[in-house]
Design a protein that fits this description.
By secondary structure, this protein is mainly α. Helices cover 56% and strands 2% of the residues. It is globular, with a radius of gyration of 24 Å.
Length: 457
Amino acid sequence: MPVDRSRAPSTRNTHRVQHQPAATTTRPVAKQTPGVTPGPTTTAPTDGFGNKPATAPTELPIERTSSDTPRSGVGGTGALRFQVEAKLTGETGAKAPPAPEVALLMTTYGVDERLGRPRERMLAIAARLQTALAAPDALDRVVDPKQWGAIRSDFFALEGLLRLYRKEYGKPIEKQLTEIKEIEDKLGALDYFHTMQQLSVDKNFPAAVQDHLAAQRAAARSDLVALVREQWSAPVPDQQVPGLAKLIDTLADVDWQDYKDDRKTLRKALRASFEKVGDKEFDLFELQGNSGLHELRRSLRWIGIQAPALGGLVAFDETRHPIREFKPLLDQPVAQSKFAQLPTSEREDAPLTISRSLYVANTDLIDRIGKLKNEGEAIEGLAQAYFEAMSEPGAKKKELKSEKKLARLHEEAESKAMQLLGAPRSLHDIESEGNSLFSHLQEIDYFEQLAAEFEKK
């Protein structure tokens, strides 16, 4: 049973500070862990994991309100105190004072006592979001798939870490996970309809289909704008983003484990996540849903999100190759991809390790399955839009009485979508390839090997 830490007395409200200009903080000297090779100095991924179209439809300007114009330059005495600590203590690793951006975030939100390295990993991500969401053009960027870049990746990173902690801390973390997932889902919906609408234009689908998708895109964008204004904007004068304020409140209020026990919790959570995927019944002849091709890619992708988000707690082991067929990938371009890197471990005392060849293989699998997903999604999504847009008013409801006729209409829509897309193969062929790939992963005990990376060593 998870430990209920939500009833611990809150200390956050006793640590409010006045906002003053922040001082510059010196980073601690990097600390190496014997026997562990930290990843290159490449940072965590700075964009999403899907292919983005090159252009997007022209948008109407967003009607501005006074709260849409944030200010910058918020600092405080907490940031200054952490700078002094960094110089006086000389601590490195997990005991090092917070990074400058984390200290500034804590000051902005009135937290002037350290929350400890485990929670500071999430605060580092929150600090990047604070910078992005407090920018003058934040609202325009968040609701434009061409511009959001690292913003969506950082929401993904927070979601990934909260998923690892929800079993240990229960309702408080579940609540924050729900809120982060809400914004991520709305970003995902806009991304999907943006991609489908752009494809319909690029491939000269009938105007009715283009208009149908444009309306869906506009609705998704409107929903996102409303949520961003309510929860993810930094208003004048305090510049506190409500969604981040709730997250920071929760992190400050929950009685968190110490560094050693937190490491154990994360190791168990990472292992359990792969065991769960290995035990799951997938149907790769389905594209969407909770067991299809998209879900398989999502399951593999979490380690590619969570490991970098842990800020150096997961490091590469260059010596082990649990699945020998993946070792040659280390000499392939995929090994140099920014998605195949891990942050350095300078702020960690005892990193968990994962075989580099296995991690690079996972990056390669995410890419391969992602291409299959995108190829199939284009056919399925545009076929559905074609079916909906080209049906006469009221016809769809009428046709539902005849399953055979409905199936025929869907087949015709899929055939037409493939023709207009110039698709070289059918949705069934794409799903068959995905199924073959998944079968091979089962044969080599891929998920079991990933889970074993996080056994106690």
